[in-house]
Amino acid sequence: MSRRVTPALLASALLTAGLAGCSTDTPEAGSAPAPVEPSSAASATPRVPAGTAPQRAFAVGVRQLKLNRDGRALPVTLWYPATGESGGAAKRSATAAEGRFPVVMFSHGLGGRPDDYATLLTRWAAAGFVVAAPTFPHTSRGGDNNVLDVLNQPADVSYALTQVLALNDRAGDALRGRLDADRVAAAGHSAGGVTTIGLFTAGRDERLDAGVVFAGTALGVGTAFAGAAAPQLFVHGELDEVVDYAAGRAAYDKVPWPKAMLSLTKGDHGRALLSDGAALRVVSDTSVEFLRWTLYGDPAARKRMPTDAKRGDIATFDDHL
Q1: Is pLDDT of 278 > 60?
Q2: Dist. CA 289–CA 293, nearest whole Å
Q3: What share of the chain is helix, strand, coil (3-state, %, to 5)?
Q4: pTM for the whole thing?
Q5: 64 phi/psi in degrees, rounded to 5
Q6: Which end of the chain is more exposed for a tag (fewer CB within 10 A), N or C?
């Protein structure tokens, strides 16, 4: 989230949005989806079949898609595993790696753009995930900073996901045959975290198997997490000056499925996501293992998460996975 957006402005906008509900497509109060009670099976394993995530680091390709949803321009940046070289260097000319990879949809914060998060998203792609990040028309840098448009963004993400998955069948595309439509997650920061929560509540996209929420909270009256169980990882700085830690914790507490919360003891609103330091390494390693567990079904990754989360004593880890 851009520092030009003040905490007071965002807080006011979030409150306004919450009182206004979740767009004209949101169910009336009293008809919102009922909370989903976690089953004993859901609390033990992700819903994807058990498997083993790749352990080597892939080279990473980067490309752009030009999408448009009903007049809403949605350019999408793709980071994806690529063959030809090891390591994490981006290669625009690289082709997709052998095998089929899970997909992660990432939503940027207010006043941001996908490239702001390139360090984190490149690490996800290097670990074996195709990451697709839309640039939203009103909440991105250069837009009009209309934070209320966040209520339209879950539908933008679902539309972009459909178009990204279509690349799997497109003749001649570098990602043809490389995308696993049965292993999909959503993630986002700040207003993008609000968007991500929307994809599991009023705007539930049943294709999603897991979610990662960075410095986000829930909006809307009477909304609840809905649909099939989808494990959630929340990441929040305890000194967040824009979205109060308590607001993020309140949203986390409402998740009825397997969940964990990584709390950065001295973390702010998300600087750890934008610069390569100790905090980013903890966030990156923990989120990679979470995605390996939820999208590859890798039980060893699940076991590594608490150790990664507590490395360096800069975060605490509430684990209900």
Answers
A1: yes
A2: 6
A3: 30, 25, 45
A4: 0.85
A5: -120, 145
A6: C
